[in-house]
Amino acid sequence: MLVDRRCSLINIYDQFLLNKGAGFILQSKLFLPFYKKLGYDNIKGIKIKIMGFNSPKRGRDIVESAYDEKAIKEFFIENRQEFEENLLSEAVNVRDKIELIHSIGNINLVENAHRLILYVIEERESEVIEFAKQEGIIWAKFSLTLAFKLEWLHAIRRTIWTFLHKFDNVKNNKINKEDFYSLENKINNQIDQFLNCFFMSYSEYKDSLIEQQNKIVEHLSVPIIPVNAKTCVLPLIGPIDSNRATFIMEKVLTEISNLKVQTLIFDLSGVAEMEPDVIDQLKKVIDGTVMMGCKAIISGFRPDVVKNMILLGITFEQANIVASLEQALKNHISE
Questions:
Q1: How far apart are alpha carbons 224 and 233 in whole angstroms?
Q2: What pLDDT score does 67 carry?
Q3: Are 26 and 9 in contact (CB under 8 A)?
């Protein structure tokens, strides 16, 4: 029943009397005299059932729910074993992988399911989000199969609703549509929240891991090898794109400064081809090397690379060019 916030206290009292047995309950010190007159001395814990009156849920029709959070929680705990059996029967592909997942990532799927359910029942949104983030990181860290996690969460959702149905039957609850849709919104939204946060956490961790691995690969792909105290060799192998060329520039200039390199040999015998823009970037690397006060030597130009250079009209005036790394080392060491 809706109560207009503008109606008088007398009218509210009259409506309260008429609806005493219909779940019309107002939680406010303002109505305490009316409660006492009706024989209710203790109103602590009675839920708000009013529209308006400066409530945070102002303007909404709030219906007293047949679902009691504490009773539902106790029901799930008391029927823990049956819940687990039902959950495992739902998760057909995961149940045989539970021990394997536990041994790989120390993840107890069954215990975590109970933990998530309690968070959902008690509407502990912050714990649901934090738990999802932790799970996402662990699954990403150990590269566990996402399909298993997705199936497990769907099995949890189905099992929750199966047990809520049993709860209604045991408690002989008479459920109206408002109660049901309210509970559906409460539970499914939190499961969806867990799913979203889990996958975001998983993705972010994987992205950061890939970025770290790319940095390691980039570092290894540009090895500056000291020959003696003043001379280093940079052997380049494989295709060079614009990103790698940029990293080469950064690495070369930094290492020349750090190692006090006086001569740097660029060995390109392992580079079969280079795009025009990459050739131009390589020229800038050579120019930067010379500007740092370091002598640049290029060895091992491949025919296809030279053809592109000729077509583009690019030359490396500031570098000494030799046929092979062997010749570069021989010439330099003999000096």
A1: 6
A2: 64
A3: no
Using CA atoms, how far apart are residues 177 and 63, in angstroms rounded to an integer?
Answer: 10
What superfamily in CATH does domain 225-334 come from?
Answer: STAS domain (3.30.750.24)
CA distance 180 to 26: 22
3-state secondary structure 39-84: CCCCCCCCCCCCCCCCCCCCCCCCCCCCCCHHHHHHHHHHCHHHHH
Tokens of 4: 């207009």
What was the pLDDT predicted at 335?
54
Residue found under tokens 């290492």: 255
CA-derived radius of gyration, the chain = 36
CB neighbour list of residue 255: distance below 8 Å, 6 or more residues apart: 224, 232, 261
Residues 187, 190, 194, 199: is their CA dihedral positive or negative?
A: positive
**Angle at the Cα of 42 (from 73 to 47), degrees rounded to 5?**
45
Question: Which structure tokens are listed for 314?
Answer: 């690019």
Going 267 to 271 to 272 to 277, the CA torsion angle's sign is: negative
- C-beta pairs of 302-308 under 8 Å, 24+ apart in sequence: 302/268, 302/269, 302/271, 302/272, 302/273, 304/272, 304/273, 305/268, 305/271, 305/272, 305/273, 305/274, 305/279, 308/273, 308/274, 308/276, 308/279
* Tokens matching residue 52: 């308006």
Mean pLDDT (10-residue bins), the chain, 335 residues? 39 43 41 44 40 36 55 91 94 92 92 94 93 95 92 95 91 81 90 95 92 77 86 90 87 92 93 86 92 94 89 88 90 66
